[in-house]
Design goal:
Helix content: 40-55%
CATH topology of the largest domain: Rossmann fold
Shape: globular
CATH class of the largest domain: Alpha Beta
Distance between the termini: 15 Å
Strand order of the largest sheet: 3-4-2-1-5-6-7-10-9-8
Structural class: alpha/beta
Number of domains: 2
Strand content: 15-25%
Bound molecules: 6-O-phosphono-beta-D-fructofuranose
């Protein structure tokens, strides 16, 4: 088997591993993918320095070598906070109202992609298979080709691909998408995002597409585009669930919620996660059922994220205000209906919290996949499972909410529909909870991160 070289913006270097939530699903998934095969993982250290000597930090752990570089203040500002997280992230999550279109940050994005190519190229050997990840590094394949890389190179997008009419609001959109044709294989989380990409290629680039195989031909270049829904590291997560830390966390939450039903949400503090809308739905539930304030307690874990980006600062204030209002109106001396926690917890603790909470609330306005939804299901007791309430706009809804079985699918924009789903989950009889759990657990267990890696890497190697 060829060596795998993974390139992503964020790298889970060994010393920083442990706290889940804040890092999103990507780093955990790639860690699992690499643990099995061994290989090299290259990316940004997360640190700022003005050192342009190309100094790289190399660490070896469990057969995986991580190689990271620092970025300068300007690079972080223009590439990470700028083009990646103030332009591509909001646009790809259908938020053109929050999207900033600045040529300067676009140039910074290209510069850092060039810097990544320059730094990683000497580490790539002839037979390596190279796998580039996410919206920070869309043009990296083209940059590697320009430096002579002849390897098989794949790209996986962890976030949605926007509809063509939204994407065309991006200046130089054609240039960006054309760079993707230098990959051999492009992966998306769902058929929905794949279809939007194919639509763009056919209608904006005039590419010819074979819809059966996913083969796209344009100006003498050929790329395969397919959907590969990412999964969780099932075995690792179950192992954590069997440990002391998870058990202690479960007991801690159960003890503190006593006879009330715990309902939990775990999300990076990001506007795409639909947190203010979620709180509105919970507020509506309490308004409609004031007598049930004693039955339900909501725990929202929301570690801060991308705090230097303006749109992320605003959401924090909004949430504090909304939770404060509900708690102010509905608290008693022995009851606080919403616990809003601004920090991350380890994966083992999250397992315990998920198992203790009888409702999981995952209601993004738009999400590439959402691994929290899958982890919530994975942590349930099969004999007494909780109910997953899931946004119909999360990629995970395709697998977990199919045919009205499995998760309760909701439109996260509607407080009334959210309130209704909460009431339905609270009153759901055990038999229905079990049958819904049964409808989800197979795909969560089997279509796991190992399956995802194997599927993608096999297609990449075989072409
Ligand atoms: O999964 C999507 C993603 O944007 C990843 O690319 C990223 O690592 C993660 O969310 C967390 O975001 P950040 O790296 O900006 O903290």
């Amino acid at each position: 088997m060829s060596r795998l070289v993974v390139i992503s913006n964020r790298v889970a270097v060994p010393k920083a591993r442990g706290v889940a939530g804040a890092q999103g699903g990507l780093a955990g998934a790639l860690n699992a993918a690499l643990k099995d095969r061994g290989g090299l993982w290259f990316g940004w250290s997360g640190q700022e320095s003005e050192d342009r000597t190309g100094n790289m930090n190399l660490q070896r752990n469990d057969g995986v070598t991580t190689a990271t570089i620092d970025l300068s203040h300007r690079d972080i500002d223009e590439y990470y906070n700028g083009y990646a997280n103030s332009t591509l992230w909001p646009l790809f999550h259908y938020r053109i109202d929050l999207t900033e279109y600045e040529n300067e940050t676009g140039r910074g994005y290209e510069r850092v992609n060039e810097r990544f190519a320059e730094s990683v190229m000497p580490l790539i050997e002839e037979d390596d298979v190279v796998w580039v990840h996410d919206y920070h590094l869309i043009p990296l394949g083209e940059r590697l080709r320009a430096r002579g890389a002849k390897n098989r190179i794949g790209f996986f997008l962890h976030i949605p691909w926007p509809p063509t009419r939204l994407l065309t609001s991006l200046p130089f959109h054609e240039r960006l998408v054309k760079t993707m044709l230098d990959y051999d294989l492009i992966g998306f989380q769902t058929q929905e995002w794949l279809s939007s990409f194919v639509h763009y290629c056919e209608n904006e680039l005039g590419a010819s597409v074979d819809h059966e195989t996913g083969r796209i031909d344009h100006e003498g270049r050929t790329v395969l585009a397919r959907a590969y829904p990412i999964g969780i590291d099932w075995e690792h997560f179950q192992g954590l669930g069997a440990g002391e830390e998870a058990k202690a966390a479960e007991e801690r939450l159960l003890a503190s919620t006593r006879n009330r039903t715990g309902m939990i949400g775990v999300d990076r503090l990001d506007y795409s996660k639909g947190l203010p809308e979620r709180i509105d739905g919970i507020g509506r539930f309490y308004d409609q059922h004031p007598e049930r304030t004693r039955d339900l307690i909501f725990i929202q874990i929301a570690p801060p994220s991308r705090e230097d980006v303006e749109s992320y600062q605003h959401i924090r204030e909004v949430l504090e205000q909304k939770t404060g209002q509900i708690n102010g109106a509905r608290s008693e001396v022995d009851i606080v209906p919403i616990r809003y926690v601004n920090r991350g917890y380890s994966h083992a603790e999250l397992f315990g919290f998920f198992r203790a909470a009888k409702i999981g609330l995952v209601t993004p306005l738009r999400d590439g996949m959402n691994l929290v939804a899958k982890e919530y299901v994975a942590a349930q007791d099969p004999e007494d499972p909780g109910v997953l309430i899931l946004s119909e706009f999360a990629g995970a809804a395709h697998q977990l909410g199919a045919n009205g079985e499995g998760a309760l699918l909701v439109n996260p924009h509607s407080p009334d529909l959210l309130a209704r789903a909460i009431a339905q989950a609270l009153d759901m009889p055990l038999a229905e909870r079990k049958s819904r759990y049964e409808a989800m657990i197979g795909t969560v267990r089997d279509d796991n991160v190992r399956w995802w890696t194997t599927e993608f890497c096999t297609d990449l190697a075989e072409g």
